[in-house]
Design goal:
The structure holds 2 protein chains of 2 kinds. By secondary structure, chain A is mostly helical. Chain A contains 13 helices and 2 strands, in the order H-H-H-H-H-H-E-E-H-H-H-H-H-H-H. Chain B is of the alpha/beta class. Helices cover 33% and strands 25% of the residues of chain B. In chain B, the strands form 5 sheets. Chain B has a 6-stranded mixed β-sheet with strand order 6-7-8-3-9-10, sandwiched between helices. Chain B has a 6-stranded mixed β-sheet with strand order 16-19-20-13-21-22, sandwiched between helices. Chain B has a 4-stranded antiparallel β-sheet with strand order 2-1-4-5, with helices on one face. In chain B, helix 4 packs across helix 5, helix 5 packs parallel to helix 6 and helix 13 packs across helix 14. Chain B is globular and about 70 Å long. Classes of the chains: A mainly alpha, B alpha/beta. At the A-B interface, helix 8 and helix 9 of A face helix 10 and strand 18 of B.
Chain lengths: 318, 503
């Protein structure tokens, strides 16, 4: 009987290790704080993590193809600035509002397209390409704003980041939408299958008739666009365009993806894993905040969690 | 006098498998002892135990009659045991000398500085001993595969190894390079080194071996002097039954034209190649490694761009610019080295089969997974692919079954023309026969088949006609009746035949 129990525990840990770790984390915090497991706080957690979690979807696509995108944080800032400055155009809100959103998203997509172009056509490693883009967009943001935030936005704009629909935060709803669509794309469509194939073995994928360049191009565009969406949400939340927004977001995002079990070598990983990875970070931050643990300590704890997650993954494979 | 190496009653159990069942094996100094068996017979496991990479569950190992407990590769090395694996353990960016002495670099006195001068001298000595003048200062990445192998052997010699095991050393080599390797092995043997030689190619065993041991399902089936065995008996011991014949015989009559290639060229690798493939025939491509056969296949498949020339598929001119276009035209390529270029290892059997034809499985925007599973299981049955389920990852399948998965993919795309590049490399004798049968079957069903192989007996056995390539040119086409091993080799090495051969 004992042997069988061990077998089940083993099986569960191997397949649902991160999920179990997440549940344990939630249980611990609900014991430590009465407020933790309340509807308000749970919605709060999803709201807080939504911006990171949405970018993590794009990053999952990129990492599945064995790439990386370090520019996401800078894209968040730059697209936030673009969107807010378009909003300041003296025009009726009905025209400026959609224009501002489209402008932000298009700039994000263009950033992704540039990254994809350098990676596919010029064969430069994604790390370098997106590192360069990161400093370019960050610098461009400071240049454009002269280092000063863009204030004085119409009140309606804050609906995106702070509004509620049926008492659910708008960013939470958007996050859920993005995850559902991404899940469907990765698991059900030919494009999703091609993403895994390209990450698993690029040359074999090409010889199997997959247009690998187009696949890689598209994952970077997806990542750039989702970063822009997060950039807009963040700008809306703080109701301003901040040139130093999204600093070091790329690290949190990559952490979420890696904790979620996606391999940095490509070809392995799931969108559900990324969701749990992002939530695990969100819960950790929130729980530690409730317990009045300072941000310095939080950073250390997060680092330890990343190491444990990677260990778990290693053991799972071994 | 006790033998150099003696392994007695070695047993190794993995979860669910008895990999080695009380195996006994011995090796004398100055002897080449060949080890043969199908994949999974236990050869690699035995070598892993000998090298200290794996522990054994029972049995003992003696060197010079003294029991030896090997629990790590370092201990094995200290005991004079070295293994040369298929994928060499060389560092590409380091020089030849640095690789040869990697991990035991000569020092300047006791200081932690490498004595580079002495390292180079010693490296030159070792290579001279092997009669192989390779420049010791060039990085290993600039060497040919054959040269890298020699460097690997030099490394072993520099360790003063007395027991050297070689796992499939001939797989990547051309005929000439193989001769060179055999010379080096004979040098080692002459110096009293005991060599364990593992190969799938039985011809080699008769050329280089003194004794042979056959493993099957983890047991020793037989050990005998090489002249007491012949190919037939070895195969019988390996597969445990009599194969009717090495190659299937199916009478094939030539039909209408499927593929015609005219003055196809790409740089110096493919020059002015012209041939025609007819329905219901198997067209072989022979030649040495680097003769341009795989490059020709890649041109036809659209994987590389051609410089010039024309191709016609069923009479219509085609010019595929990418593998996708070629696939849509009905061309399939079973690449050489299927693990690197053919399969997505971490994907499942069904996903690998459907990969090139997912659009056929679409229902609306989504892939119909139920249909995908049905299609896969259909091909798994058809080709008798041994897999526990359609969701099994291909990395857990054997070489033969992996090859069949790639083939299933091309059958599912309804290919009209299939190019097999080294279809049986690293595949068991029994499964080889199955693959030959499938190839014949496909040809008789009207699919055009081109087979590239470095195994001449294989080409002579299954092909209706054999084109021979040499340095990028198609230098001759021989019918099955005209083709002999000697004639093909003459053409492949740049010679001319006494009588003109009709195209």
């Amino acid at each position: 009987m004992k042997g069988r129990l061990k077998k089940y525990v083993d099986l569960a840990l191997r397949n649902y290790g991160i999920a179990i770790a997440f549940v344990v984390e939630v249980l611990i915090f609900s014991q430590l704080s009465e407020y933790f497991f309340t509807t308000d706080n749970i919605l709060n957690i999803t709201l807080q993590i939504s911006i990171i979690a949405i970018i993590a979807v794009g990053m999952t696509f990129v990492i599945l193809t064995a790439g990386i995108d370090l520019s996401v944080g800078a894209v968040v800032a730059f697209t936030g600035i673009i969107t807010t400055s378009v909003l300041k155009i003296p025009a009726p809100l009905a025209a400026a509002f959609p224009l501002a959103l489209v402008a932000g998203l298009v700039v994000g997509a263009i950033s992704g397209a540039i990254a994809g172009l350098f990676v596919t056509r010029f064969n430069i490693t994604p790390f370098i390409v997106t590192l360069a883009l990161m400093t370019i967009w960050r610098g461009a943001g400071y240049m454009y704003t002269d280092g000063r935030p863009i204030w004085g936005l119409p009140d309606e704009f804050s609906f995106l980041g702070s509004g509620r629909v049926f008492s659910l935060p708008v960013p939470t709803l958007l996050m859920v939408f993005v995850y559902v669509v991404a899940y469907a794309i990765l698991t059900q469509t030919t494009f999703g299958r091609h993403v895994y194939a390209v990450g698993g073995n690029k040359e074999a994928a090409r010889l199997a008739g997959i247009n690998t360049n187009s696949v890689i191009m598209r994952v970077y565009i997806i990542c750039g666009t989702l970063s822009a969406l997060s950039g807009i949400l963040l700008a809306s939340r703080v109701n301003s365009g901040q040139p130093n927004a999204g600093l070091s977001y790329e690290l949190d995002v990559i952490a979420a993806v890696v904790i979620g079990g996606t391999s940095l070598f490509g070809g392995r990983g799931t969108i559900v894993g990324t969701f749990i990875g992002a939530m695990l970070i969100g819960v950790l931050r929130n729980g530690l905040n409730l317990m009045n643990v300072g941000s310095y300590v939080q950073s250390v704890v997060l680092g330890v969690v990343i190491l444990l997650a990677v260990l778990l993954d290693q053991w799972r494979k071994g | 006098m006790p033998p150099l190496l003696e392994m007695r009653g070695v047993t190794k159990r993995y979860p669910g498998v008895l990999a080695l069942d009380s195996v006994s094996f011995d090796l004398a100094g100055g002897e080449v002892h060949c080890l043969v068996g199908e994949n999974g017979a236990g050869k690699s496991t035995l070598m892993k135990i000998l090298s200290g990479a794996e522990g054994k569950d029972a049995g003992e190992i003696r060197v010079d009659g003294k029991p030896l407990n090997i629990s790590s590769p370092a201990e094995a090395q200290a005991a004079g045991i070295s293994i040369i694996y298929q994928d060499f353990k060389l560092v590409p960016a380091l020089t030849v000398a640095e690789n040869i002495f990697l991990g035991h670099e000569p020092r300047r006195g006791r200081a932690p500085f490498v004595d580079r001068k002495r390292m180079r001298e010693l490296s030159k000595q070792v290579l001279a001993q092997l009669d192989e003048p390779i420049d010791v200062d060039v990085p290993v990445e600039s060497l040919t595969t054959a040269q890298r192998q020699i460097v690997e052997i030099a490394r072993v010699v520099s360790h003063r190894a007395r027991i050297v095991a070689m796992d499939e050393p001939s797989a990547p080599l051309t005929e000439n390079e193989l001769k060179k390797l055999f010379e080096v092995i004979r040098v080692l043997r002459g110096e009293g080194v005991g060599v364990i030689y593992i190969s799938h190619r039985l011809e080699e065993i008769f050329e280089i071996g003194d004794r042979v041991t056959v493993l099957r399902d983890g047991k020793v089936i037989n050990t005998c002097n090489i002249h007491e065995a012949d190919k037939r008996s070895l195969i019988r011991w390996m597969v445990g039954r009599e194969l009717e014949s090495e190659f299937p015989t199916v009478g094939l009559t030539r039909g209408e034209e499927i593929l015609r290639v005219e003055s196809l060229s790409r740089g110096s690798s493919v020059q002015n190649v012209a041939f025609t493939l007819y329905r219901a025939e198997v067209f072989g491509l022979a030649g040495l490694v680097g003769a341009g056969r795989s490059e020709l296949a890649r041109l036809i498949f659209g994987a590389d761009k051609k410089d010039g020339g024309k191709m016609f598929l069923s009479g219509k001119e085609i010019s595929p610019q990418s593998p996708r276009e070629a696939i849509d035209l009905g061309i399939g390529l079973l690449t050489e080295d299927r693990n690197r270029y053919g399969l997505i290892m971490q994907m499942s059997v069904k996903e690998n089969i459907s990969l090139s034809n997912l659009t056929a499985l679409l229902r609306g925007l989504f892939v119909d997974k139920k249909k995908e599973r049905e299609v896969a299981s259909q091909y798994v049955d058809l080709l008798s692919i041994k897999t526990p389920s359609m969701s099994q990852r291909v990395e857990f399948l054997s070489g033969g079954n992996r090859q069949k998965v790639v083939l299933a993919r091309w059958l599912f795309t309804k290919s009209k023309l299939l190019i097999f590049d080294e279809p049986t490399a690293g595949i068991d004798v029994g499964v080889k026969y199955e693959i030959y049968n499938i190839i014949k079957q496909l040809a008789s069903e009207g699919i055009g088949v081109v087979v590239i192989s470095s195994q001449l007996p294989e080409l002579l056995g299954i092909c209706s006609r054999i084109g021979v390539m040499c340095e990028g040119k198609l230098v001759g086409v021989l019918s099955q009746r005209e083709a002999t091993q000697e004639r093909v080799m003459t053409l492949a090495t740049g010679g001319t035949l006494e009588q003109p051969t009709p195209r």
